[in-house]
Amino acid sequence: MKPTAPVVLLTRHAFRTAPGSTTGLALLVLLASALPAGLAIASGALVATGTTLPDASGPLLGTAFALGILFVLQQVLLPVAQVFAESVGRRLDREVAQRVLAALDRPRELAALTHSRTTELVSAINDGLAGATARDALVGVVNMAVARLGSAAGGVVLCAYQWWLGVPVLLVHAYVMVLVSRCYQRALASAEGAPARFRRARYLRDLLCTAPAAKEIRVFGLAAWILDRYAEESSRALEQVRSTRIGAGRVGVQSALLLLAVHTATFVMLALDVRDGGLSVPMFTTFAVAATGLLGITTVWPDLLNIAVGGGTLLLVDQLEDRLAHEDALGSPAPPRPLGTIVFEGVGFRYPGSSTWVVRGLDLTFRPGRTTAIVGVNGAGKTTVAKLLCGLYRPTEGRITVDGVDIRTLDTAQWQRRFAGLFQDWVRWSLSLRDNVAFRAPAGPATDAELTALARWCGLAEVVDRLPAGWSTPLSRAFGGVDLSGGEWQRVGLARALWELRAGAEVLLLDEPTSAQDVRSETGFYELLRSATSDRSVVLISHRFSIVRQADHIVVLAGGAVVEQGDHISLMSANGTYAHMFTLQSAPFSEGVRS
Amino acid sequence: MTKPAKAHRNALYAAIALSWTADRRATLLTFVGFGLRPALPVLIAYLVKVMVDAAVVGDTDLLVRAALGIGTAAALSAGSVPYAVELSTRMIESTAVLVDRKLMTLTGSLPTVQDLDDPEVLDRLEVLRQERVRLSEGADAVALVLGAAVRAGVTAVVLAVVDPFLLLTPLLAVPAVVAASRMQARRTAALDTAAADARLARHLYEVGSAPRWSSETRLFGLGPAIRRRYHEAAERADRHVVGALGRALLPVTAAGVLFAAGYIGALLLVTRQFAAGGATLGEVVLTLNLVTLISIQVGQAVQFLAFLHQTVDASRRLLSLESYVENSVARTGGDRSAPAVLRYGISLAGVGLRYPGSGRWALRDVSLHLPAGSVVAVVGVNGAGKSSLIKLLTGLYEPTEGTITVDGESLTGFRPGAWQARTSGCFQDFVRPEFTVATAVGVGDLATADDPDAVRAAVRHGAADGIVAALPDGLATPLGSSHANGTELSGGQWQRLALARARMRPSPCLLVLDEPTSAIDPLAEDVTLRRYLAAARLTAARANGVTVVASHRLATARAADLVIVIAAGAVVQFGSHQRLMADSDGPYRELYERQSGAYS
């Protein structure tokens, strides 16, 4: 299938985003395009009046004045249209970004998002949005449209001389324009393929140019080394991109010969007609201006590149939306409230396309109000269990039920909202502390009083006290606020999860909630947790046995399967994997106590 | 940040130099093509004049030759388009790569991490990142302006030949060009003002579109709120820029009217000359055509100048970043080399650190001596200043007050990078380098990065051999999503590679470990760290180096020679584990007993 021309895409999207403004913009462009033809006609009129009438006569001044008006419009209409296009284009940029966000928000399960084609599309779109944006492209469309339509209007004037001359001349010019445009279509194709090819180069650039890796780059002295890798990767990518373009030679020669023929023919014909008295000099002037103006139709400006990249990005956005359009999971009944007992029945999970089972044969029961701890070595499948539980992953085999009902038959979006999760990687918003805890306030903005109560549970109160603007302090130095330490951030994450629990979630999911906590916060963590969650269900993944031991129920995972479950006392007396792990972690301290 | 006058003068030159350096041939040909092609319409207008005059006297031969001339000029004009496109595309592509390299070189040569924390520097980098395309298309813009200038020159000469008074017409076009320049200046100022909002919008967009956060955004149902906030921030930024542009349209219009008055005057002048017999009919037509062409040229010149302005602005930003980096490098660099072997150790005297833009002291009044050859543990609650102390020791941050000395020599006296070359480390926010496993570890010491034995040994020391063995291609497995077939690792796995990386340098004078096992397995955490420290101690012995480990696991502190207890940015206790435990009211003993109590 032939891809839609970027100009068409841009226009279509602009119209969809802002129909009124886009129509206005189009009218403005049409008006500006009619000016060259008007100038050609008025020029002829001026020569006619100027050479036949006495000096400074009324008609002469009138014609000159009319020319002046056209002349002013020609200078003013384009900048006005450009500003207008920039305004519509910026609106389009916002719309595009929001459509990408909405599309990515649509699938309820993670599999569709982590698919390599999706991530490729997103990274290509983001690169497009960072480079030539839709707004640059739209300004480019306006520039090109005014230039090309204006020239074409000259061809129409020529038809008034001899239609059998005007029509073919116009057609030949249109053909040359198409030839040249094809040349640029190919550039478009390579520009579209470029982001994927430059992915490695882009990674290396961002690695060196952004803050996260700055420390190690300086300690290990990697700047020059990364630059060398970038040079290698980018020249390889450039070579690949260029190999997809075909040389410009043939198109150039063909265009030149065609235009040589039509222009020579037109002017010879006009010349002979003037000599023989069939055409007046003023009329000759009009047609000569119109014919030479036609050349503008073949002009290429740098706008073309912006149009290609901007249009290409829109195409990718359409593709992304198509890809993710069928991922909705709506229309199923809402889950019961409160949630009853959740049961894993022989649940197994593997990533789509992978042959390795991450977890398999899981039989687990999560009773309401109980704290369940999940322990196991790295890669045992702890986080996968949590993600299966809250519907972010769908079991490859087996089923998960709530009160005997398969959760697959329930509304996934609503199911997910019943879980307040703090995973190992949580968003660090460069926004105020308030927004970081209650980004999506359930009912109106969160008051400081509500938040302060919550902060006490999470050990966040002392952090709030030392922030210059309290709850309103942005948590990022880059945004004129304060950066928090890893442990402080983790408490913010915890506060966020508890806020969500308060706002209607029923199960608290915590994945390593104390990994960055110091001793003082860690030792009191469990009591704090229980008092903050009172009768809610808690699922706790933790490496810290000092916390795990206090849970109502402990599940020990190994190699994607449950090897033991029970409470701390029964597991210790079983003297199995759990007892071994617990002893190992407490050993340094028992030595310490002895010494 | 300061903007030296030099930067203003050289911005244009620097923009051209970028493309010239990137692809000499394409740049030269683009200049020739774009520079000469715009003269063709003037030539055609002149040939039309020749035709009119020949028609009046009935010279058929001249008529046909002029017609053929117009045909040839038209052919040249259109036929050169595809070449021009190809060449300028090549030039832009090559320049884009060069601009990236330049940005990378500049960011990479900032000697401290402090600079990258400065909101003003970040803003500047962000605008440059956004406007990068202006730099890569810079020479293109210059060539277009050159073409417009050539055409203006040729037009002026032809007009002067008809009547010197006509030269006033192009002069009246000057205000139009000035108005356009003003419009550009307003655009730049508006972009600067809107940068903070634009950055906020981008932050929201990035979080909302990154797969990394998709679990959280789903569970918390954040999607609609993210989109709404993105929209608000982006709209604020856009409204500001568009508003500024709209206000600039009035002077543009006024200048256009002035020019039109001149245009009418010129036409009346030349028709009067004709009536008086002072000009041929061809010259009337020529003047009409040329002055009309000037109007189109003003439109184009304005557009090209706008294009050029954006280039110059972007180029100026780049130059100002360059001089900022130069200043930074000059400010921090001494000329002494760092010691190969430590003799006395590292000392801090009255050291304090305040982050840029923050009023709070992250650390203050720290005076310590870390003896050569010792292992030092740093403990304290979150936010106490453990990481800040570590960053200061590596020279990645400069103390706001006080000095840090190595064997009596101030850190600031060393050549830039010299002290870092004698250190190694594993940070809390360790990097996840997307290369092969061997490279991700090997970059810890570029000198031996290609030595498989050195890499294997480091992998073993980082207790990462299990991870490597499980990977499809072992050490040759590419990591991360920037590779088409890259393997993703878990946080704990990445951290083990970071630990291995920190072991690549054979004999560092300083090894820093900031919460180095936070993402590692429970079963293994304490054991891994203690083993790691024991091995590091042996390595450090080669250079009599200091090992500093920040950990909230107090079991680690027991394995250290000295313990620094930090609270609220100040050192509250410093001594051996035994000595600190002996202080029954001290914070260290309280912390230790609390943690060990959780297991008994």
UniProtKB/TrEMBL annotation, chain A:
Keywords: ATP-binding, Membrane, Nucleotide-binding, Transmembrane, Transmembrane helix. The chain crosses the membrane at residues 25-48, 60-85, 251-272, 278-297. GO terms for cellular component: plasma membrane. It is a multi-pass membrane protein. GO terms for molecular function: ABC-type transporter activity; ATP binding; ATP hydrolysis activity; ATPase-coupled lipid transmembrane transporter activity. Residues 342-584 form the ABC transporter domain. It is found in: Cell membrane. CDD domains: ABCC_MRP_Like. Gene3D superfamilies: ABC transporter type 1, transmembrane domain, P-loop containing nucleotide triphosphate hydrolases. This is ABC transporter ATP-binding protein. It comes from Actinophytocola xanthii.
TrEMBL record, chain B:
PANTHER family: ATP-BINDING CASSETTE SUB-FAMILY B, ATP-BINDING CASSETTE SUB-FAMILY B MEMBER 6. The chain crosses the membrane at residues 28-48, 63-85, 165-181, 248-270. This is ABC transporter. It comes from Actinophytocola xanthii. GO terms for molecular function: ABC-type transporter activity; ATP binding; ATP hydrolysis activity; ATPase-coupled lipid transmembrane transporter activity. Pfam families: ABC_tran. InterPro entries: AAA+_ATPase, ABC1_TM_dom, ABC1_TM_sf, ABC_transporter-like_ATP-bd, P-loop_NTPase, Type_1_exporter. GO terms for cellular component: plasma membrane. It is a multi-pass membrane protein. It is found in: Cell membrane. Its main location: membrane. Residues 346-593 form the ABC transporter domain. Residues 139-310 form the ABC transmembrane type-1 domain. Keywords: ATP-binding, Membrane, Nucleotide-binding, Transmembrane, Transmembrane helix.
